């Protein structure tokens, strides 16, 4: 097994800003969820990578400039005992533990080309390429970065506290960091809104405090609902645009059939089509041993609340923070096992999407579902088919060969991002129990080419 050697641990910080951001009720549930850990892999097959020391210097210098634009990432999550609030304090970046950790490492017995090319993940190696964050108590750090020299390439690993950012915000940060590193002028770049009061939820500050007490009753200590467990198998597929188009067409053919119960369902988006196929493939992989035809099965995903008219006033499209709420849909396994199961799944998902457009805060306290939904019959689809996981992260030596979300430990989880090369393709990474992975892969892939 490849082993990582830490060469240097430093702090990277911009000048402090007198900015304290009290968390909203949307932020509080994320205290109990693992941090976001994402790795960008670059192999040097073409021999174009600069020297490793030069890369480290460029990444470090550009990170300072980028954090000045994103002060919450250089701050600390702190507890305010006088009010019972938690907040992001951006004023201490010039202290000993201020700013973001910047780690330089080596793992030269790990082959960059193999890590980036294998469909099946080397989970232990990927975990070694991303830093850990200390999140069990406040004050808690927000961001850490690890740059690792590999055999024939390198990795850039990022860990960020989910209380502070959602997926969309993370990609904004990575895009800005990459642009700064390659020397693109930030003039004309978008400015972002950080104040949590921009997310208007009935109950305001008191709701934020009560939600915080609900999920973290012993502050400054933080309970970990999902402690690290065994590393389950993971696999990545690239779903080509033409396969997505055929999948959408197949769903539409069923839903426009005169005998179809989903005859009024609009054409599905790429997200809906892939989520529907994932749900059906999950059920088929577990039927009949773990899921009976009469069982209820569930699919969960997140809705971005920015710009939604159901929040008054709407949250700015440039709001930088955690601005997502839950969406849950249910079906019987029998419905999804039928000939038109993918169409039935798509119709159920679209119904939830349409309701979320009208009332995006309906399931804002989404953590409650974990108290009653059977997790062995739940599919969790995260990410977005629109996240520009390759296009925007050119640091000056080309786009990544591969990027993956490392924080995946639950069976039945799929993470979506836009595929490398654009053109409407999607990268789908799935985590499944060992006994179910082969059956899932077989149904998912065969359904795309049939």
Runs in which pLDDT lies below 50 for 5 or more consecutive residues are none
Sheet-strand content, in percent, reads 15-25%
Number of domains: 2
Helix content: 25-40%
Q: How many beta-strand segments?
A: 16
Shape verdict: globular
Topology:
Layout: E1 5-12, E2 20-22, E3 36-43, H1 52-69, E4 76-80, E5 85-89, E6 100-111, H2 112-117, H3 123-128, E7 140-141, E8 143-151, E9 153-160, H4 167-181, H5 204-215, E10 234-239, H6 241-255, H7 270-286, E11 296-304, E12 324-332, H8 333-337, H9 341-358, E13 378-383, E14 402-405, E15 413-418, E16 426-431, H10 434-449
Parallel strand pairs: 6-8, 11-13, 13-15
Antiparallel strand pairs: 1-6, 2-5, 3-9, 3-14, 4-5, 4-7, 8-9, 10-16, 11-12, 15-16
Helix pairs in contact: 1-4, 6-9, 7-9, 7-10
């Amino acid at each position: 097994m490849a082993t990582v050697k830490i060469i240097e641990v430093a702090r990277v910080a911009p000048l402090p800003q007198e900015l304290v951001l009290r968390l909203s009720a949307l932020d509080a549930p994320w205290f109990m969820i693992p941090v976001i850990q994402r790795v960008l892999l670059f192999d040097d097959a073409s021999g174009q990578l600069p020297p490793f020391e030069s890369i480290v210097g460029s990444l470090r210098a550009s990170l300072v400039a980028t954090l000045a634009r994103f002060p919450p990432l250089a701050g600390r999550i702190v507890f305010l005992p006088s009010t019972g609030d938690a907040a992001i304090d951006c004023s201490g970046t010039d202290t000993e533990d201020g700013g973001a950790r910047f780690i330089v490492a080596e793992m030269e017995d790990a082959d960059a080309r193999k890590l980036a090319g294998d469909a099946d993940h080397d989970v232990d190696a990927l975990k070694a390429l991303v830093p850990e964050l200390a999140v069990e108590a406040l004050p808690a750090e927000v961001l850490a970065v690890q740059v690792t020299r590999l055999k024939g390439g390198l990795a850039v690993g990022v860990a960020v506290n989910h209380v502070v950012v959602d997926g969309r915000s993370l990609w904004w940060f990575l895009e800005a960091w990459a642009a700064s590193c390659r020397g693109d002028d930030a003039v004309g770049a978008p400015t972002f809104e950080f104040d949590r009061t921009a997310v208007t939820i009935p109950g305001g500050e008191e709701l934020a405090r009560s939600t915080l007490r609900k999920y973290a009753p012993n502050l400054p200590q933080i309970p970990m609902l999902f402690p690290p467990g065994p590393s389950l198998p993971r696999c990545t597929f690239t779903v080509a645009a033409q396969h997505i188009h055929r999948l959408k067409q197949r769903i539409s053919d069923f839903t426009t059939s005169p005998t179809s119960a989903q005859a009024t369902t609009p054409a599905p988006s790429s997200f809906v089509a892939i989520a529907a196929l994932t749900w059906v493939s999950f059920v088929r992989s577990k039927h009949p041993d773990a899921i009976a035809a009469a069982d209820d099965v569930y699919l969960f995903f997140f809705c971005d609340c920015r710009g939604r008219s159901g929040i008054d006033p709407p949250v700015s499209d440039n709001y930088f923070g955690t601005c997502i709420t839950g969406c849950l849909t249910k079906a019987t396994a029998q419905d999804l096992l039928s000939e038109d199961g993918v169409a039935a799944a798509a119709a159920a998902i679209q119904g939830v999407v349409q309701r979320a457009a009208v009332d995006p805060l309906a399931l804002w306290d989404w953590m409650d579902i974990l108290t009653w939904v059977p997790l062995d019959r739940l599919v969790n689809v995260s990410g977005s088919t629109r996240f520009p996981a390759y296009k925007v992260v050119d640091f000056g030596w080309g786009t990544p060969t591969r990027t993956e979300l490392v924080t995946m430990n639950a069976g039945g989880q799929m993470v979506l991002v836009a595929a490398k090369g654009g053109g409407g393709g999607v990268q789908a990474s799935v985590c499944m129990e060992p006994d179910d992975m082969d059956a899932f892969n077989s149904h998912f892939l065969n359904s795309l080419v049939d």
